[in-house]
Design brief:
The longest helix is centred in the middle third of the chain and has 20 residues. This protein has 331 residues and is an alpha+beta fold. Helix 1 packs parallel to helix 2. The chain is built from eight helices and 14 strands. The strands form three sheets. Strands 1, 4, 5, 6, 7, 8, 9 and 14 form an eight-stranded mixed β-sheet that branches. Strands 11-12-10-13 form a four-stranded antiparallel β-sheet. A two-stranded antiparallel ribbon has the order 2-3. Helices cover 36% and strands 26% of the residues. Belongs to the diphosphomevalonate decarboxylase family. It is an enzyme of class 4 (lyase). Its EC number is 4.1.1.33. One of its GO terms (molecular function) is ATP binding.
Length: 331
Amino acid sequence: MTTSANNTATAIAHTNIALIKYWGKVNEQITIPYTGSISLTLDQFYTKTKVTFDPQLTADQLLVNGKIQTNLTKVSRVLNRVRQLAGSEKFAIIDSKNFVPTSAGFASSASAFAALAGASATAAGLSLTHQELSKLARLGSGSASRSIFGNFVEWLPGDNDDNSYAVPMTDVTLTDIAVIAVNINSQSKTISSSQGMQLSANTSPYYSEWQNVVARDLVNLKHALMTNDFALFGQISEANAMRMHALTLSSLPPFTYFEPGTLEVIETIQALRADGIECYYTIDAGPNVKVLTQTANLSLIKDHLVDQFGPSRISVAHPGPGIEILEHERN
């Protein structure tokens, strides 16, 4: 499909947290994972991206929060696929703004590439389904495939470009969920997520068992979500996160994303739980901790964490929406 000049569209996509983790890629170039995963899209943190295809441009241009970026490798994967689908050779200017505060400790790659997929496809005149957008976003970031959808989402791993995509989870009755983010360190990681997961997949003697663990956890977490079992939901999410991080410690060379503050939050949550306050934690590839709880205990746990770590390090979120296309302009 060919398109007219200077096509523009804007999209908003929200970040997500993985509850059953994705850790390792069968195919690095098109982001095919070894296992499935389940995530929760959040309401407070998002990326707004505007894409304009312009025949006057001689290369793609990317601005993130007003700053020109020079590394467009992953962005180009998404845009090249859009150009291929649209039958177009136009380059684009991408203006992306992250409303994912550094103090929240959330990575913005999921929301950023989901928004890029939605805005670029629409600007190019493509009418893609959400499933097709999920596959497109996956080319930039695996977790972005899940941010196309709201609430609880499952990424079906597949084994090729066509059958690896995310789907919204239906029949979920567990809806009372709150997430408290504790930011330990917002600086760039020494070992990126991509580097870390490939090191684990290639060198950890326990990686094959990790795939079995994920298969069981996917089944059990779905059961918890469908039966409104928050305790089971929390137990599985917490254990899955720790088993993922066990892979980093068993890699060669060993590494960890944990910092002293990470362990401090873990101990705090364990102590609160021992006192009868139901809460659990999950940790992605970094030192920051996300606490999983419900409305009845939210204020108490938040106040406790604010007293311990300070208000600037604490953020609260709830289940959030899927991608939204804000505008589609054609000149």
